[in-house]
Design goal:
This protein has 304 residues and is an alpha/beta fold. Helices cover 47% and strands 18% of the residues. α8 links the parallel β6 and β7. α2 packs antiparallel against α11, α7 runs parallel beside α9 and α10 packs antiparallel against α12. The longest helix has 20 residues. The protein is globular, with a radius of gyration of 18 Å.
């Protein structure tokens, strides 16, 4: 049913907005939330602030996997260990921008210079929050693009790297998104994506219990065989799939332990209802990994 509340978008943009607004209402008051996070973690700057929109699923550890993969693949393509040239990078489904800002900083330490970084998200409110944080941090060379990940207003072959850090389940037509990634990349350009709760071994897919915290209209899943076809149809080659099941189960177990031990602090930052939803969301995902109904995965590929 369309949402008719003033200022709330309809369609998939509205669906994603309402879900994330309910899960993380504190993100829309990020200045207050930032102070709470700094008080809790003792860490200022982008690394500490990643928690603003990365409490779910893989979080900063998943971003580290992406950064490591990008740096390694760029170095592999650099003849004789020559200095790596600056790259133009885009994240599809960038949300509030925490993962993109974190990724740019992690790449700089590897060392990979990101000349231009674009964060693409369908929800205007997410882009607005990301823009406020970026400006407050004084970042140059980074832009928010409010658009569908399947129709990005950038020219063909404009990018060296496209990443997706966990947003694959939020794309109703992931094949179209992957084709768009192929269009955006220069020949030989890199695609690196994490599949957190988006990839299944086949039918019937995730359990009914999983859908309580991951509703169908917000989280879309794809069988592995179909994802491989989508990547091939989009023109990607040198495809490598890394199974993250053991890693992801251990990560979520540790994150759940932190959420339970420090529930009061987490509730103080995000609100009590959000703290409980974070716990339930992580628990449901881990159960699907354990049962083999979801396949946590890191994909890397090159544009042919």
């Amino acid at each position: 049913m369309p949402n008719t509340a003033p200022g709330v978008p309809d369609g998939q943009s509205g669906v994603q907005y309402r879900y994330h607004r309910e899960l993380f209402p504190a993100l829309h008051d990020w200045e207050r939330t930032e102070r709470s996070i700094v008080e809790f973690t003792g860490e200022e700057g982008p690394a500490g602030l990643l928690g603003l929109d990365q409490m779910g699923h893989f979080g900063p550890q998943g971003c580290d996997l992406v950064a490591d993969s990008v740096a390694a693949l760029l170095a592999e393509a650099s003849p004789g260990g020559a200095a790596l040239p600056p790259v133009d990078l885009c994240e599809l489904g960038s949300g509030f921008g925490g993962a993109l800002r974190y990724l740019v900083d992690r790449l700089a330490a590897r060392p990979v210079t990101v000349r231009r970084a674009h964060g693409v998200d369908l929800v205007a409110e997410h882009c607005a929050v990301s823009r406020r944080i970026r400006r407050a941090q004084g970042r140059a060379g980074m832009t928010e693009i409010c658009a569908s990940a399947a129709a990005v207003p950038l020219p063909d072959a404009a990018l060296d790297v496209v990443v997706v850090t966990g947003s694959m389940p939020h794309f109703p037509d992931p094949g179209a998104v992957l084709r768009e990634a192929g269009r955006l990349l220069r020949p030989g350009g890199l695609l690196v994506l994490t599949e957190e709760v988006s990839l299944t071994p086949g039918t019937p897919g995730p359990s009914a219990a999983f859908r309580v915290t991951h509703p169908r209209e917000v989280f879309f899943t794809t069988p592995l065989a179909a994802r491989l076809r989508q990547l091939d149809d989009a023109g990607f080659t040198a495809l490598v799939r890394r199974d993250l099941t053991d890693w992801a189960m251990a990560l979520l177990a540790e994150r759940l332990k932190v959420v339970r031990i420090f529930r009061g602090s987490v509730a103080g930052i995000y609100g009590a209802a959000s703290a409980d939803r974070i716990r339930d969301t992580l628990t449901a995902a881990r159960e699907e990994y354990l049962a083999g109904r979801l396949l946590p995965t890191l994909f890397t590929a090159r544009r042919g």
